[in-house]
Every structure is written in C-alpha cells, then in structure tokens.
C-alpha cells in the first residue's frame, strides 16, 4: 500500500494539507485514530488571512455563510461595557475580510471532509499509526486498522498532524520544550440572552481569570471561554458548568437558558525544536501549541499546511529539488516561536494577579485601548497581527527584493481599482507574475516561455495607496506570498530566480 504523502491526523491542519495536495494531483492517504470527526471543539476563530488563502480551495464563501462575522471586541469592567474596538472599520482597506469569523472547528472539519470526499479521498477512521522508519528514499509506516490488524504503508513523506501528543514527533525523537499553564480552561456552548449576546466578542477584565463570550451563528447562541485557578482547578475533571457560570452571569449579564456542551482542559505553550527530520514533518499542534489568546492556533496549523503542500507537490512532480522542503521549517518555525511568545505575554497580562495587575486591567486598559484604536498606525498594526496579515517570510530562502515598504516574503497587498480586485487571480494554485502598470515585452515573452501566468493591471491610485509600486515585477508563489520583487521589471531577474533555485511552475501529477 503506497501514497505520495501519508497524513496522520484529520483535524483542520491534516484535512487542508490533504485537500491542497489532492487538488494538485498528489496521492495522499489520511488516517485518524478517532472513530468519527469531532462533535465538539475548542477552536472557533477563522482569521482574515485564512479566509484569503481559502479562496484557492473554494472554501471561503462556505465558511462565511456557515459561521458568524465578529465585527467588534468589547471590554467589560464592573458589569458594564468599558470599551469597544471596531474590527470592521480597521481592516476595511486591508483585506476583503475585515472581521473575525466564528466557525466552530467541528463544522469546519465537516466542511473540509465533504470537499475531500468530493475529490474521492476518504479519511481512514479508527486507524492508528503505531510506528514508522525511513528506508531507501521513502517512509515505511505501520498502521493498525479498526479490526486490530496491522499493515505496512509506504510513502515518500509522512506529515504529523496528530496533535499535541504526536506519535510522529515522538518517533523522530523531537524535543517539545515549553510548559503548561496552571489555569484550567473551560468551554461552554450555550443558548442565552443579555447585552453581551449582541453578535460581538465580549471580554471581562474584572478578575485574574480569563472570561470571554464569543458569538456563534444563530440568535442567542454563544461560546463562553474562561479559566479557573483556585482549588477548583485541582479537580478539573469534576467541574460542571454550574461551578464556573456565576461570574459570566453576574459580570457579563449572560442569562443562560441551555448548555449544549461543556468541557475543561489544560493548555500548554510549546514549540518543537525542529519541524522536519528527514522525510517526517510536523504541522499544527504537533509542532506548536499555545494559549487560545487571539484565536491563532487553528489558523497557524492551516498556514503550516498551505506552506508545505505546494512544496511537497513541487518536489514530487519534479518541479523543485528536495532542498525546497528545508524552507518549510525556515519559514514557519520563527513565526511559531513569536506567536507562542506573544500569546503567552497577552495571556499572562490578562491573568496576572495583584493590585497593580488589577489596576492595569480594569482602569488603564479600558481607557488606553480606545485611544490607541483612534491612531491609524496602532489600530492597523493590531488588526494585521491578530488577522495574521503580518505573517511574512522576509529573509527566507525563497524571498528576494523589495519595492517601497513591500518585500519579498510578504503577503501581497490587497487593492481594488474600479471593478478589478487584484486578489482575483490568487485562486490559481501556481506561480504567477503581477505587474501594476506596464510590463516590458521581454518580460511578457519570458513568462510565456516559463509557463508563468502574467497579470498586468492598469496603474491606478488605489494600487499606490495599498503599497504597490508602478511597473515593478512581483513574482507570487503558489501560496500567494511574494517570492521576488524586481523594481526594474527585468525578465533576466525572473529567469535567474527560477534557474538558481532549480524551480519550475507546478505541473499536476495526474
């Protein structure tokens, strides 16, 4: 039994990896030891950058239609709304999706599974990886099926998307340094009423335990996420909603009618020492885990999958050397480390104890945040960071050149001029060139000879406002990040980029 890539774990990270690869003609086998997809979930937020990238998989509209757009964040102190941060107004000029999308992970997984099945790929359930080894240019894995029978499975690569307790990570002996938060997290999906059930995100700053109300699709539906640290945390498995609900009812004025689901869990903050060893790769929670602050976890795992998928496809179809796969860790591990550090600082601030911490949370933050939100640069930075628009591969092995404030490795700035949206061509899962203004004829001819799609946009003021520069060559990677910028728009620069890295545009395997 053989596939190009064996994917272990069918959460969002593994499913997106399987979808991307299958769309590019790569043969995948995806297994999960669970009997069925999750019916409950912790991950909720789908950030703007993920929605942008999902256009390549034709998933964006389905996620938006099936979820709920969160337009603003509200901070509460002493039972009253103390500050409101409007997300929509901040991101309107930056992305087609200037909001945080609430789309529960269980529904998210079902959508991904449905799209995979349409392509003829079925997740092999109740199938567990028991071990693997690397042999003569391939991976030989042992899989135990639902009947307990073990079979060998051969693959060119194995992708560990198998969560915080990853057997793939354990098998390659990869360290997973970090720690565990002492707080116990709880999640409750409820049917409720009250002023904090208005479709926006509400966070209570009164106490050193985190508490937030996230809106869900449907009237009066919400998810409560909070922490407890006192003696109740010592018996997390025995906690019930009644043990933690008083604060939400009192401080955020939540009138709970029905509790649909309640769960408790511990959270870690860890990053694997490496994301690759030989033919084994780590993605998502197998590679990095952190606090839920900012709703970054699932989005980061999906970003891992999209970054690695086109590189797998390039190598497996002979469009790139094996060394291209080294750029996965080079590009993703730095971001994961910064993310863990940032979310840890935010969570530590929100949950810090003591009089000074209380004053900072309940008095200074509600006063300061609205003022910061009125400063264009500050609020744009805040939105870009949370939405993951700032994720960049500057300085990476595939990034070259700059023009103005935009560098190789950055996300392409979004702009709409008249009826033309420059993200329209980004549904293409391949390399492409953008020129805003006029493309030299030699460049047109070079793109044709290389098999590179070339998009030329008539120069408009909107492109300049977005940060793009006239007549510059922008080479976009298959994951839509900018690979190369040449201010002179010369065909020789483009040709040298591909030749020096031994790269070719993607050619579907089948």
From TrEMBL:
Its cofactor is FAD. InterPro entries: FAD-bd, FAD/NAD-bd_sf, RIFMO-like. Keywords: FAD, Flavoprotein. It comes from the Bacteria. Residues 3-341 form the FAD-binding domain. The keyword Ion transport does not apply. Transmembrane segments: none annotated. This is FAD-dependent oxidoreductase.
């Amino acid at each position: 039994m053989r596939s190009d890539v064996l994917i272990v774990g069918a959460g969002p990270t593994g499913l997106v990896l399987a979808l991307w690869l299958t769309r590019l003609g790569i043969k995948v086998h995806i297994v999960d030891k669970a009997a069925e997809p999750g019916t409950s979930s912790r991950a909720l937020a789908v950030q703007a950058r993920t929605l942008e990238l999902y256009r390549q998989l034709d998933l964006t509209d389905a996620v938006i239609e099936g979820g709920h757009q969160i337009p603003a964040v509200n901070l509460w102190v002493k039972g009253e709304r103390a500050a409101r941060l409007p997300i929509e107004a901040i991101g309107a000029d930056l992305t087609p999706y200037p909001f945080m999308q609430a789309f529960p992970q269980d529904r998210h997984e079902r959508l991904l599974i449905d799209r995979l099945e349409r392509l003829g790929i079925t997740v092999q359930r109740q199938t567990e990886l028991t071990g693997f080894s690397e042999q003569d240019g391939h991976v030989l894995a042992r899989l135990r099926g639902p009947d307990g029978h073990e079979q060998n499975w051969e693959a060119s690569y194995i992708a560990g998307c198998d969560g915080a307790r990853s057997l793939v990570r354990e098998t390659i002996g990869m360290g997973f340094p970090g720690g565990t938060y002492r707080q116990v997290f709880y999640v409750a999906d409820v049917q409720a009423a009250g002023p904090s059930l208005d479709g926006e995100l509400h966070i209570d700053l009164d106490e050193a335990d985190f508490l937030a109300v996230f809106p869900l699709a449907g009237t009066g539906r919400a998810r409560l996420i909070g922490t407890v640290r006192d003696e109740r945390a010592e018996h997390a498995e025995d906690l019930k909603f009644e043990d933690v609900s008083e604060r939400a009812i009192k401080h955020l004025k939540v009138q709970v009618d029905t509790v649909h689901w309640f769960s408790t869990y511990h959270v870690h903050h860890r990053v694997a020492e490496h994301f690759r060893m030989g033919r084994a790769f780590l993605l998502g929670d197998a590679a990095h885990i952190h606090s839920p602050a900012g709703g970054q976890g699932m989005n980061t795992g999906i970003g891992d999958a999209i970054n690695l998928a086109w590189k797998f496809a390039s190598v497996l179809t002979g469009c790139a050397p094996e060394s291209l796969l080294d750029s996965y860790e080079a590009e993703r591990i730095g971001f994961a480390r910064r993310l863990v550090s940032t979310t840890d600082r935010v969570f530590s601030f929100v949950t810090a104890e003591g009089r000074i911490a209380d004053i900072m949370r309940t008095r200074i933050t509600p006063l300061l945040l609205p003022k910061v939100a009125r400063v264009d640069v500050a609020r744009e930075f805040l939105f870009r960071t949370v939405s993951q628009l700032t994720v960049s591969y500057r300085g990476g092995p595939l990034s070259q050149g700059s023009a103005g404030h935009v560098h190789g490795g950055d996300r392409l700035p979004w702009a709409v001029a008249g009826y033309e949206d420059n993200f329209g061509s980004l549904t293409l899962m391949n390399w492409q060139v953008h020129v805003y203004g006029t493309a030299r004829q030699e460049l047109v001819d070079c793109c044709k000879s290389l098999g590179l799609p070339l998009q030329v946009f008539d120069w408009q003021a909107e492109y300049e406002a977005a940060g793009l520069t006239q007549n510059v060559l922008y080479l976009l990677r298959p994951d839509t990040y900018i690979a190369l910028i040449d201010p002179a728009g010369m065909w020789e620069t483009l040709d040298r980029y591909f030749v020096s890295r031994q790269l070719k545009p993607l050619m579907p395997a089948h």
